[in-house]
């Protein structure tokens, strides 16, 4: 009987202990389950993660700046850029030799071998005869040749320059002369023919003389039409100017001295607008 009573008491105690332990196990299970399936945000943990991320980024800007320095250290090669501050770029390079030239001045006569030419309203036939005899040349005159000559030389004209003067006298009277082998032919010409043609790179070779020449002049900063209008007043009435607008170039035929005067003026006008800055 005693044993039975003791067993009942032990069973009751065991049940009481188990009843006391069951709620504790249920709470721990719920807590673990809640940690895994919770729907709220743990602000403390998020703040820790943000602090770690910002701490890791502190080194990145320096790396990026180093990359920029290496990549932007030298700019990529590009097209050549002209220095617009250079004065040489503002003037016509073909007329550069004319910019420093001064207007032609008369020089005093010098003694030496030569001839004096003094004619007042002289008939052109008489002048031709005198000069041709001095030059020792044979000639044929066209019957249509007419005119009078007025010339007075202040000094003796060298014999080696006399033919150039002779040709200019003829040109002024609307005449011209050409070599036909053993003699010269003097004739009426609508426009006198040049004795030489100078290309664009030979402008600097021009010398004051009475020769009739042709000069090719590229225009750089003006239009060729405007350049033609500007130089016309400085050329003789016997001049011929051909305008080539496609090449922006002028071809000028006139007496060499007249062309020099015209190009000297043109060299000061055919300049870039940057020259005034």
Plain-language structure description:
With 277 residues, the chain is α/β, with parallel strands linked by helices. The chain has a domain at 193-276: Ribosomal Protein S8, Chain: A, domain 1, CATH 3.30.1370. It has helices spanning 2-37, 43-57, 60-71, 124-135, 159-172, 224-231, 256-269, and strands at residues 118-123, 139-141, 148-152, 175-179, 184-188, 196-198, 212-218, 240-244, 249-255. The strands form 3 sheets. It has a 4-stranded mixed beta sheet with strand order 6-7-9-8. Strands 2-5-4 form a 3-stranded mixed beta sheet. β8 and β9 (249-255) form a beta hairpin. α4 (124-135) runs antiparallel to α5. The termini are far apart.
Strand element count: 9
Structural class: alpha/beta
Helix residue percentage:
40-55%
- Rg from C-alpha positions? 53 Å
CATH topology of one domain: Ribosomal Protein S8, Chain: A, domain 1
List low-pLDDT spans.
103-112
Largest sheet, strands/sense/barrel: 4 strands, mixed
Strand content: 15-25%
Mean pLDDT comes to 76
